[in-house]
Specification:
By secondary structure, this protein is mainly α. The chain contains 10 helices and no strands.
């Protein structure tokens, strides 16, 4: 089950509810988030790029290419990735992961753990990503072991275990926070 939630929708950005309007800071955060998703190899559909542009425009963000991105028609969707990159560049939001593949995997691990810790990413989906997409490529380093352990538990959870999914999610959040607090140690040993 966790594997299903860890694919394309693994990084759902939590939008403000309909009752609250998105602020320009919210819109910029959304653009940053999508930029990292794309850089870390996640598929982000053109429809999401266009919607993010529209959200930013409505929130008052200004960029020469933003209106063009937000106004793309369905037949123009193939233009969205390039326009999105222009918007990021104009707003100074371009994100470049480290050139070294191992360092880039560590950067992705910290980004995913940060989302688990702040509640913007489901703990089961996030720990599964760390387990399947990051820890494996890094040779299962000790620093990621608690998060991989949480992924195993959340992936195979059964009611008969006598522990709730909520408790396991709480353990995953705590493991993510612990991992983030030990960042320099993990990088030096990773």
């Amino acid at each position: 089950m966790a594997a299903e939630s860890a694919d394309v929708s693994a990084f759902p950005f939590q939008m403000p509810t309909e009752k609250t309007l998105m602020t320009s800071d919210d819109a910029l955060d959304q653009l940053r988030h999508i930029a990292r998703e794309r850089v870390f190899g996640r598929h982000v559909g053109s429809d999401r790029l266009i919607q993010a542009g529209l959200d930013a425009l409505i929130a008052g963000v200004e960029s020469p290419s933003l209106a063009m991105l937000a106004g793309l028609l369905r037949s123009e969707e193939p233009e969205a990735p390039e326009l999105f990159d222009h918007v990021l560049e104009e707003l100074g939001l371009l994100f470049q992961p480290p050139a070294d593949p191992r360092a880039a995997k560590w950067a992705m691990a910290y980004w995913v753990a940060g989302q688990i810790a702040d509640g913007t990413l489901d703990p089961a989906a996030g720990t599964h990503l760390i387990w399947a997409d990051i820890a494996y490529d890094l040779g299962y380093p000790e620093a990621l072991a608690p998060l991989v352990h949480c992924a195993h538990h959340l992936d195979g959870w059964e009611e008969s275990w006598g522990v709730s999914v909520e408790e396991l999610n709480g353990e995953a959040v705590a493991a993510a926070k612990q991992f983030l607090s030990e960042r320099t140690t993990a990088e030096a040993g990773g």
